[in-house]
Write a sequence for this structure.
């Protein structure tokens, strides 16, 4: 075998550290058998699920038309540059989620469509991302990466555990997948193999191995490797600086000052920086093929986040921190719309980062299914007879984007039918899932 051909399992290595290679034209890095006159493999399909709690502005979540001519409601305006890579889907829902009509009962089965237990019992269903992790994800170092920007809530609300509101990813019907809210620990999970000093840079650890690799790849790949390593360094530095700003935003602690020494790494003080760091970590996970499956909860359903970083329209001269996210969702005013757009700006940021990375003839976004979802259409009404669902990316050419699909008023509009279709794009084929027994043929 040509010594210049690397299998997907090859990494840049250092003490306690491994950094998987990005897509390179000079190397076979995705796990395919080397093929004569084909120096590089085709990149795999990835899944990214991004959740926003409490729904959206009731009259501004819509899309119509096709491709570059697609028109978008005000909530979706930050995604205007991605209309040709968007699949906007109306009318899908979960019948089981409508039975409790409360945040927890509407969220805990979002990715499974399973019945939700109440009365002190915790039972939902294995979510579709974890089903993929159990098969498709086993070929990577990290089968799935489950991230969040707000702490899990263990309390009870109207006979339902608030753990349902805090988790969309479930490893089993009784086990929510642990949610990582610390960017530094999420970063370590991707790249560190053993305990290392807190100030030990991943790049410093693998520098020698990286220099050796650089001498045996094309000039184009040298540039791609340099860009990738710079991205890793930038994320490391931003994580290091994330807790040094003066004003704590987003989740607020119960005491004004810490009652213990501050840990070396923690939750970023700026909620926007927290969200974008998590997006950058998702991108690095995909770019290196360290993981192919990620979920990111930007906040909980029934969220307590505040947004002093956003200028208030309702209360000029202040930030949108006069009301927590959950209560703001019941107002349906211009500040609520601005917060909705802020969440879409994070998805646009993630999509832009993915789309800037070339993998052969496609971009990383082209090779991804980026699912944006919430557990209700509008927080003011708690209505979930149809859910706000949107896909970005083409699943490696397996999805035709730039379209609007409308299932309102049609039979068999189970959201789990979409999940069957998405799993099929990643070569995991099931006869049924949740309350669905067939895929959405149009996807």
């Amino acid at each position: 075998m040509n010594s210049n051909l690397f299998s997907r399992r090859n990494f840049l290595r250092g003490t306690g550290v491994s950094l998987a290679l990005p897509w390179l034209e000079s190397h076979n890095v995705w796990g395919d058998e080397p093929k004569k006159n084909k120096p590089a493999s085709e990149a795999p399909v990835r899944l990214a699920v991004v959740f926003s709690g409490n729904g959206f502005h009731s009259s501004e979540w819509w899309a119509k038309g096709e491709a570059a001519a697609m028109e978008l409601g005000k909530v979706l305006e930050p995604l205007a540059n991605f209309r040709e890579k968007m699949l906007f889907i109306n009318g899908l829902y979960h019948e089981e989620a409508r039975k409790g009509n409360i945040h927890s009962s509407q969220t805990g089965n979002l990715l499974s469509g399973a019945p939700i237990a109440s009365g002190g019992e915790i039972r939902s269903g294995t979510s579709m991302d974890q089903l993929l992790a159990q098969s498709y994800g086993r070929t990577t170092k990290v089968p799935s990466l489950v991230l969040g920007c707000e702490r899990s809530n263990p309390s009870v609300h109207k006979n339902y555990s608030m753990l349902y509101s805090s988790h969309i990813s479930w490893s089993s019907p009784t086990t929510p997948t642990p949610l990582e809210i610390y960017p530094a620990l999420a970063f370590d999970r991707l790249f560190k193999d053993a305990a290392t000093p807190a100030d030990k840079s991943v790049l410093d650890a693998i520098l020698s191995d990286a220099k050796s690799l650089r001498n045996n790849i094309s000039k184009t790949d040298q540039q791609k490797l340099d860009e990738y390593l710079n991205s890793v360094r930038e994320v490391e530095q931003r994580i290091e600086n994330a807790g040094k700003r003066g004003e704590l935003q987003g989740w607020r602690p119960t005491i004004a000052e810490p009652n213990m020494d501050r840990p070396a790494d923690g939750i970023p003080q700026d909620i926007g920086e927290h969200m974008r760091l998590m997006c950058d970590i998702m991108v690095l996970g995909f770019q290196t093929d360290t993981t192919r499956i990620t979920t990111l909860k930007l906040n909980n359903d029934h969220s307590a986040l505040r947004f002093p970083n956003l200028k208030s329209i309702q209360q000029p001269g202040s930030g949108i921190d006069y009301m927590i996210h959950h209560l703001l969702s019941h107002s349906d005013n211009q500040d609520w719309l601005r917060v909705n757009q802020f969440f879409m700006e994070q998805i646009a940021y993630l999509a832009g980062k993915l789309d800037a990375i070339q993998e052969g003839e496609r971009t990383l976004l082209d090779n991804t299914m980026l699912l944006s979802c919430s557990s209700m259409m509008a927080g003011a009404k708690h209505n979930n007879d149809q859910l706000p669902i949107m896909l970005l990316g083409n699943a490696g050419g397996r999805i035709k984007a730039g379209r609007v699909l409308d299932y309102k008023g049609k039979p068999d509009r189970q959201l789990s039918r979409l999940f069957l279709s998405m799993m099929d794009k990643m070569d995991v084929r099931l006869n049924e899932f949740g309350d669905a027994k067939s895929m959405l043929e149009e996807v």
